[in-house]
Design goal:
Strand content: 5-15%
CATH superfamily: Phosphoenolpyruvate-binding domains
Number of domains: 1
Radius of gyration: 19 Å
Distance between the termini: 26 Å
Strand order of the largest sheet: 1-2-3-4-5-6-7-8
Helix content: 40-55%
Number of helices: 13
CATH class: Alpha Beta
CATH topology: TIM Barrel
Amino acid sequence: MNPSELAKQLRAGQTVFGTLIVSPSPRWPDVVRGCGLDFVFIDTEHIALDRAELSWMCQTYAALGLPPLVRIPAPDPFAATMALDGGAAGVVAPYVESADQVQAMRGAVKLRPIKGRRLQRLLDGEAPGGELGPYMAAGAENRLLIINIESTPAIDALDSILAVPGLDAVLIGPHDLSCSLGAPENYDHPDFLNACETIFRKARAAGIGAGIHFWGEVEQQARFLRLGANLLIHSADISLFQKHLKRELDAIRRTVGGELKATPSAASKPLITI
């Protein structure tokens, strides 16, 4: 799949699946491409990846037909352009709470390579004119713009956020959203589920993809799809490694009558809170 195909599927309401990739190991892409994913999610907000590592990862996954969506450290247009220059298929902007922030990200992602005063005039509605318009539109088809909805102010501003042209999807950050709602890490709380349903419904009604990054059990993940999500980022490579390694070691110990080792309570929580 290429970025343009991914964007079209999101806007058409088709369900797409990805996972968070933490490891920059050169052996990882060949393993990941056989897992049935539509894209990969690379996070530089919470994960310590330098610019060269990120570019290698983006270029490799893109070459394997897995568009890399990169979350930048902040909703910063300059950080967005660096991620795209490195090979990102799309940018995820964290903790966005206003349409103005989305407009700034739109300028960096969808209106490249224009900058400065000319860019501001385009964002204000000026037509590009001449050959520039088709040139920019062709490039924009291959660069996705996704924003994180992670707070109650973001939900309050959702209608104006969704009205910004060029937005491909919104993505719920469940940890931060649950905290903003006063129900930290309670992902079964009615207020959290109602907020998710509202975000999914409004985004899908606007013809924009709606998603969540979640690490829980299969039924919990399926619930978000039933609530209206069509973009699901399932867990993370490091979390899946931890879960399956512990499960298999426990099974081996049971087989030989060994004693199971106690694990810290934090092991039941995601290693990365999104």
